[in-house]
Inverse folding.
């Protein structure tokens, strides 16, 4: 998909106002950004434009404000971090639309940056209101979308604005996301292995179905493993099981067998009486899971099994944690998979990670630089893996045929 869309390198931004959709939806505590990964990811595109004397207008959302402006969701702390990263001043607009904002955008000089206030202070953003999109478009002369994390949403700043502002092109981060995810799905070196985790099979059934036609091997962890185990008639204790999805899990197992895809389920788990870490936990073979226990993580034998099934992989896509990762006592399985994938990457395997918790695990383990690509878009990467059209990508200008 990336080679069919125009990129920031296809435009001449000198002396022009460039409206750039970025994803600065980052955690903020006590007025300070606590994780600037997404801000750092946007630097190459912003720096490229500034070096070519563009006048850059940045827009993003932050959090989920309800009913209008909310100081705790202001982008001002983001501007402060952006200034330090760019090593130059970043002006803050008081809003994202309106005459005052338009005047501030027109006042920009070559190489200057203006950050708009939170787009979601206006409900028209998520409603993809045409009038709001047109007001955003008035702030620029060119449009660049570098926010892959929001590309699966047809909002005013990602899809609507492109009806009023051309050219509309992809930034470097957007290109990189589409390139790595697209290459993994369309031209994978084999064996191609998918590792899927998370709580519910219902949230992953589309991606599972899509991947069954592409992968050689599928490793399933997370709480959704218990719906598969129930489909096999195996004990699940008090573990999370989607009773209305057991037939679906059974169908997936049958499809995998019919397609000769090796579907690998855990052989043990970490069991506890409480999901919040307040009760003792123990590793146990699945057959030994007690009726009053629940599985909260994959067990050490499963980590060994998954590691062995990743040893010959040439391409791996990972989405979703292996257990209740946010509880430190139940993070070992997810971190173990992260280490196994880092080792695979060291052997030349292409390793692509999509999903907030999976990426967080990689970063927590200090392994980020050992992966081929860490996606900045959880929902967007999942929908891409499902084969869905991303509105924010589809709205960009098509590249000219060579």
């Amino acid at each position: 998909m990336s080679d069919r869309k125009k990129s920031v390198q296809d435009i001449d931004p000198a002396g022009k106002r460039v409206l750039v959709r970025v994803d600065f939806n980052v955690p903020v505590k006590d007025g300070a950004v606590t994780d600037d990964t997404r801000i750092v990811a946007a630097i190459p595109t912003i720096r490229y434009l500034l070096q070519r004397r563009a006048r850059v207008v940045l827009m993003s959302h932050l959090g989920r404000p309800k009913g209008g402006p909310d100081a705790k969701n202001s982008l001002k702390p983001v501007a402060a971090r952006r200034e330090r990263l760019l090593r130059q001043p970043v002006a803050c607009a008081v809003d994202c639309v309106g005459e005052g904002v338009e005047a501030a955008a027109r006042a920009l000089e070559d190489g200057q940056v203006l950050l708009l206030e939170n787009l979601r202070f206006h409900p028209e953003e998520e409603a993809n209101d045409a009038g709001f999109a047109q007001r955003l478009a008035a702030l620029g002369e060119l449009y660049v979308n570098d926010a892959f994390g929001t590309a699966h949403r047809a909002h005013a700043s990602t899809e609507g604005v492109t009806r009023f502002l051309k050219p509309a092109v992809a930034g470097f981060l957007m290109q990189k996301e589409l390139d790595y995810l697209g290459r993994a799905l369309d031209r994978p070196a084999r064996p191609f292995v998918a590792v899927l985790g998370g709580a519910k099979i219902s949230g992953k059934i589309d991606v599972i179905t899509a991947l069954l036609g592409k992968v050689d091997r599928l490793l399933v962890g997370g709480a959704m493993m218990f719906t598969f185990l129930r489909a096999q008639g195996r004990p699940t204790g008090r573990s999370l099981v989607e009773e209305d999805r057991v037939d679906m899990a059974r169908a997936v197992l049958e499809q995998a067998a019919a397609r000769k895809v090796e579907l690998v389920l855990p052989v043990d788990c970490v069991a506890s009486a409480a999901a919040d870490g307040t009760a003792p936990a123990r590793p146990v073979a699945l057959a030994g899971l007690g009726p009053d226990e629940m599985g909260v993580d994959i067990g050490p034998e499963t980590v060994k099994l998954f590691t062995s099934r990743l040893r010959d992989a040439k391409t791996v896509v990972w989405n979703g944690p292996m257990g209740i990762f946010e509880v430190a006592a139940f993070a070992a399985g997810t971190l173990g998979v992260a280490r196994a994938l880092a080792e695979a990457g060291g052997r030349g395997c292409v390793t692509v990670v999509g999903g907030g918790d999976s990426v967080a695990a990689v970063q927590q383990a200090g392994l980020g630089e050992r992966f081929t690509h860490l996606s900045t878009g959880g929902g967007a990467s999942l929908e891409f893996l499902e084969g869905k059209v991303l509105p924010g990508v589809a709205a960009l200008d098509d590249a000219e045929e060579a």
